[in-house]
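[agent] plan:
  1. take the single chain provided in the ticket
  2. run structure prediction with default settings
  3. attach structure tokens to the ticket
  4. add a short note for the reviewer (M.T.)
[agent] executing step 1
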Amino acid sequence: MAAALVTARLVLVLGLAAPLTARAQQAGELAGWLSPEMGRQAARASYRLETSPSQDVSGQSGGLGYVANGFSFLTPLAQDAGQELALGARVEHLALDTSVVLPDTRRALPGQLWDPRLSGFYRRKLDNGWIAGLTAEGGSPSDKPFHSENELSINATAFLRLPRGERDAWVLLLNYDHNRDFLYRLPIPGAAYWYHPSPGFQALLGAPFVSLRWLPARDLEMAATYLAPYRVRAKASYRLAAPLKAYLGFDWGSQRWFLADRPHQENRLFFWQKKASLGAVCQLGRGLDLDLAVGYTFDRVIFEGENYGDRDHDRLDLDDGAFFTAQIGFRF
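[agent] step 2 finished; step 3 output follows
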């Protein structure tokens, strides 16, 4: 199962773990999808709150703060030793406390941004020991979800796990994402080698991603994931007591929405930021976890364009500031 946790981080960054994005903390939600074990998926649900107080915006008279809420669930529909089928969903909402406007087009920044999604997952163990699977997701990340077909997004991935020896494996993928932060609307292949020499070290090495997990001591765990060209996630955690774990984290990534009033249909609203966090996870009971964290967010920029190369168009630079998150998760 430890090996599956790291593999799931790869699944997340490529868009396979569709019901869960925010943002690394859900990596364990689909921990088994590339595991060789079948028939052990469990239903789970989570709620997450994040808030950041208002900070100044360069060139604007007003500031910007936000409150983000997210709910997700995953439930198996059918599973046995040879196949698994599951359904997932999530809804994310970002409330912006601001009066700023996009500087080039002079449009007001929306106060409410939504990201509802529905996902399906299927995988099957073949007679030769390979595992083939497919994930598909549909949603509408926008200020006006489902306003028209232009605010819809589609994400689908086919994957194949080819075992090599007792622990290692090759992983082949093909991903299409209508809202990827780079090369969106283009299918992208991926290939990686799963290296698992011991229970204390696993590495998933490939293109365009790298994922590592290392347990240098019994209660210490370190993990990192990189997805080219601009996605970085790292976390170090230490178990203080049986129900309590403290951690340090770093995350660099973006959120993206299709605004209903955008002047060009290819454009999206981007919110890029880097986050450093200090937190703790406590097991409140069987299957119930509480995750609390405080942190500092910096290099924050909002812009509208087709991709990261358009980051100087309708650009808003938000001052650095603090943030707080709380998440509760339940495994049935």
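[agent] step 4 note for reviewer: Residues 2-331 form a domain with the Porin fold (CATH 2.40.160).
[agent] ticket updated
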